Amino acid sequence: MDEKGIRELEEQLRQAMLSSDVKALDALLADDLSFVDATGKVWTKADDLNGHRYGMQRIDRLDVEEQSIRVYGAFAVTVTRVALSGTFAGAPFAGSLRYTRTWGETAGGWRVAAAQCGLVGF
């Protein structure tokens, strides 16, 4: 996998998040995913999929502002700054976040194995 391929996977992930496409998210996330959100809560793959499946989280806007990608053989690291808005548990949110994702080559293809996001200060 090269940088272009990882960039394409990141775009597939962005589109899946925007449309709450649980099938696409299932294919892009490792079964043992660990995702640390901006509050420090750790989410599993099931947590993330269920948030989209049952409408707990809705993302209306997810614009990539900058992104760096480093590929190291069977894994890659992305650091992405986004502007996003939507609702979580019915409450609106908007802001700028920076995501760090570790993509790994698995038997099922390249998937996100670990991720973390944090608020970007103004």
From TrEMBL:
<protein>
    <submittedName>
        <fullName>Cytochrome P450 oxidoreductase</fullName>
    </submittedName>
</protein>
<dbReference type="Pfam" id="PF14534">
    <property type="entry name" value="DUF4440"/>
</dbReference>
<feature type="domain" description="DUF4440">
    <location>
        <begin position="6"/>
        <end position="112"/>
    </location>
</feature>
<dbReference type="InterPro" id="IPR027843">
    <property type="entry name" value="DUF4440"/>
</dbReference>
<dbReference type="InterPro" id="IPR032710">
    <property type="entry name" value="NTF2-like_dom_sf"/>
</dbReference>
